[in-house]
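A favour, since you know our structure tokens better than I do. What I am after is a single protein written out in full by you. Could you add the entry underneath, on a fresh line?


***
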Amino acid sequence: MFKFFKKQRGAMFGLDARIALSIFAGLSVVTGVSMIQVLKDNRTDKILFLHEKVSAALEVMQEDLEANPDAFLANTGTRFKDTFLALYDESMVAAAYRSKWLGPYLREDRNRRTEEMYQLRIRPMPMTLTGINNCTATHEMNGECYHFLFIGDATVPVPQKIKDDVNEALDGPGEVNPDTNGSVRWDTNSLYIRMGLTMRS
């Protein structure tokens, strides 16, 4: 998408415009839901907006690099963390892909934590399985693997109330087993929110 923007370093307006268009497209969905459901916690609004920003930035970066993180990361051994860092830190990208990296795609503090100190990562997971699972090559080839924004850890866990509110905003009320189904999932400490499809290998 957005192929009419010329890819060149320094063209930050073009890059910002591409990301902004993606954010506005995503926010239109969230706004529609919010008109029906009043979000009960300002922290929930912040997470929803962060989700849209990261989703848009990741989509544009993946398009520029024409590859999945498995291919373009510099392989420091911390894949979920490094995928998030690659949105604004070129050193996280393997040398072979750096000429295509036109970022920063996201302007966030380098500690990868939100204002509430939730740690941020990006994790691919298959939508065809319930719960928290890793994608396989088969999932990717079948178009079943999605990137999820991975929020929180044992140090600063996401409160259950926020998990419930985010789930209600994006998946709707009355979902069966909401922690393991749909576009919003969670475990004891972390919240996972679906973003875009991974590229097929």
Summary: Residues 1-6, 32-39 have pLDDT under 50 and may be disordered.
